[in-house]
Amino acid sequence: MRSGPSAFNRISVCLGLGFLYAPIVLLVVYSFNASRLVTVWGGFSIRWYAAVLEDSQILDAIWVTLRVGLISATVATGLGILAAVALARSGKFRGRTLFSAMIYAPLAMPEVILGLSLLLLFVAMGIPRGFWTVTLSHATVTLCYATVVIQARLARFDISLEEAARDLGCPPLSAFLKVTLPNIAPAVAAAWMLAFTLSLDDLVIASFTSGPGATTLPMRLYSQIRLGVNPEINAVSTLLIAVVSAGVVAAGLIQRRRLKSA
Amino acid sequence: MVSCIDWPVSSAGATPLVRFEDVSKRFGALTAVDGVNLEIAPGEFFALLGPSGCGKTTLMRLLAGFAEPDEGRILLNGEDIAGLPPHRRPSSMMFQTYALFPHLNVEKNISFGLKQRGWNKDRASARVEEMLRVVRLEGLNLRRPDQLSGGQKQRVALARALAVQPKILLLDEPLAALDRKLREETQLELKAIQRTLGVTFLIVTHDQDEAMVVSDRIAVMNEGKIAQIGAPHEVYEQPASRFVAEFLGEANLFPDGAHWHLVRPEKMTLSATATPGGMAGEVMEIAYFGDRTRYVVKRPHGQVLRISRVNLGPPLSLEVGDAVWASFAPDSAVTLAS
Amino acid sequence: MKRSWPAGAAPFAWLLVFFALPFFLVAKLSLSHAVLAIPPYAPRLDLSRGAAGLIGFVRELNFATYTRLAADRLYLLAYLSSLKFAAIGTAILLAIGYPMAYGMSRYGAFARQTLLIAVIVPFWTSFLIRIYAWIAILNPTGLLNQVLAAFHLGPLNLLNSQTAVIIGLVYAYLPFMVLPIYAVLDRQDESLIEAAQDLGCTPTQAFWRVTFPLSWPGVAAGALLCFIPMVGEFVIPDLLGGSDTLMLGRTLWTEFFADRDWPAACAVAVVLLGTLAVPIALFQRQQAKVLS
Ligand SMILES: Nc1ncnc2c1ncn2[C@@H]1O[C@H](COP(=O)(O)OP(=O)(O)O)[C@@H](O)[C@H]1O
Ligand SMILES: [Mg+2]
């Protein structure tokens, strides 16, 4: 049994969560502010949400961002499954050290370096910058996150399940698809979600690798933020927070229900 | 590499279903299976018995196709099965952890292999029902593995492996996870199922009682090598080596030049009074088992004897520390090759 | 056992092309010099001239960019202040994050799961937006000063200061510190604490003699996971720091976008990478150990 939380434990957790949430809550509250002055409360209003819906630049950016996120997360998850299988199942192979180094390094590497190096690659290959270069770049970086999530699940996966399937007549690939994949599906979904959110959120890599006509939402927000605080940004931010929180909370609740029923 | 074998590798007469010829398997510097020769006849219940880590699972996985031998051949019905992948081998395996697919219910677990073999729905579901009857789990079709008890999981795993009508069923420590009472019941049931269906069973176990109860023949393994093959009473009564003698049950060993004489505890008698030819000693321990009583006796020069006495009449009135005399009939001693 | 290796071939090739190869380009470019052209650097490798092209190309590479940067005090200051910000940030994060993670791990299973979600949600929420939220708070007319004014204090001019950068770093990276520490504490066997108390420890002593030493892997993971990207952070110093807040990530960005001095940007990247190579290698070893 765990001894319950002490007063000190409760205070630490409350202060920590308060610190994490206070700025977000303020931002959301002020997105409903009627006043143009972000810091002066002028009554409740949803005029800034209406303004967002009429701002074609923002809407374009959202559309670009969603497409980049969907494509790059899907590519990253597909490659991530393959990479995780190679790392979790192959034991030692030539190039393994290099391979795992390339998987883990981007997790901690400063984004400016990743962005700059990818940009130089596209310049060297003569690929014009735009939608596809951002997508490729996001797929590359989020591939590493997806791999780590899936590999963690595969490491716990009982290999004898797959062997049982082969013993009962499945060739190796079909055993993986019929038995392993359905059982690691939640981790694959989590990996996709993580890749998608990271892509949605990225400013630095997109700024380096994007070109004209492919301005993502963070890039658009960044250039507006540089001009100063603006209630429309609060409204867009609130929408984004709502979407992401809903996804995370739903995933968390599903997991928690499973925990409770187990 | 030819090992010298002084017991019959095959069961008399029948052409073997499985034949291992000088099979070796190495993992790096470790030789997990070392020059194994053995034959399993069709319809036989064959046990691989040996201490943990002696290579039993590895030997079974070589037969199932999850590993290839480094040396030697494995023949099935006289044909070399080298290179045949697991999904094309006519054996099926019941895994030590059962390996039930958590995302499929009982019915779908059992019909998994049938679907793979292209059985149509009606035929497959008839077979599923039949298998559920065999393992006495009728009506549990729609349960998920996590809603089953340990014993039920074990039965579903058995049903799944049997459903595909394997030429040989491989069982890796199938009962190790069950508690003792259930394990003993299931041993008898396994034997009954095997006899009814006539399928060849190869069971791996480290429990000598289990091997003796269920199997027609036992191969005793030690450090990757076969130590002896024979019927349960043969390996118990006429062990080929000191290892076999001590691994299967308890052994009293008496040195005689280059040889050892083995006397099993139940073949020794104990007396509270001096007997001619009896070995004097002191009672160290008395354990009462209901049907029998077990005595540990220490001789003056230090040798410890184990003596088992069936409780037919009143118990001997002995206490720890009493002087006793142990003896055995000369024809109950077996001479072991050194 | 070798059979699964072809599965890795596609991602392996992908990472070689999109991750490893670009680093060589960065290293190569840091040895070139800036020119007014598109792309704005020279020399360019001209393989149509064969081996002569290659030799001519290699001859023109030099360390001039590095010597130029080394001679400029601003770059040295940026380098040192990046390390300083990251170190201070990591220290504060440990002081806040550890008690928080430990507190979370004391709750029952259901509450723990809820708290975990609560920490993860901001971690998934846009980084940029969370930093933006602080601008509104730290503004001279912002909420912080409104609150202070209500108590007849202030005003504090925090926006565009080093304090604001530290606040931003701590705020943005708090989940990265809490989650690895919590993961280790959550897995810890409660009976170890009971055993320690049984052997005569008070709860506080049991914490310091058992819980805390056992949580080191989480602390190390959290500290590395925060320190490494903080050294190269761009968004936080750019939005919350003043024009005098020098950090390498920001320097690199300015060289690249404002000055179009690609070789200088690349040289900064190489220096940054060289500085972070050891912590990154430590982090990798730790991750590989946890996962296998
Ligand atoms: N895939 C493997 N790689 C390396 N060593 C192995 C592998 N499989 C088994 N071994 C080793 O081979 C020996 C025999 O193992 P095993 O056949 O599982 O024994 P048993 O089933 O009799 O307990 C053990 O020492 C084990 O550690
Ligand atoms: Mg075994």
What does the overall shape of chain C look like? Answer: globular
How large is the share of residues in beta strands of chain C?
Answer: under 5%
> By helix and strand content of chain A, what is the structural category?
mainly alpha
CATH topology of the domain at 55-228 in chain A: MetI-like fold
Uncertain spans of chain C, ≥5 residues at pLDDT below 50? none
Based on CA inertia axes, which overall geometry of chain A fits? globular
- Kindly report the name of the CATH homologous superfamily of the domain at 55-228 in chain A: MetI-like
Q: Report mean pLDDT of chain C, rounded to a whole number.
A: 85
What CATH architecture of the domain at 55-228 in chain A would you give?
A: Orthogonal Bundle
Helical coverage of chain C, percent range: over 70%
The bound ligands are: adenosine-5'-diphosphate, magnesium ion
For the CA atoms, what is the radius of gyration of chain C?
24 Å
- Written as H for each helix and E for each strand, in order along the chain, the element string of chain C is HEEHHHHHHHHHHHHH
CATH topology of the domain at 82-250 in chain C: MetI-like fold
- What CATH architecture label of the domain at 82-250 in chain C applies? Orthogonal Bundle
Q: What is the CATH homology-level superfamily of the domain at 82-250 in chain C?
A: MetI-like
Helicity of chain A, as a percent range: over 70%
Distance between the first and last residues' Cα of chain A: 18 Å
Distance between the termini of chain C: 16 Å
* Most strands sheet of chain A: none
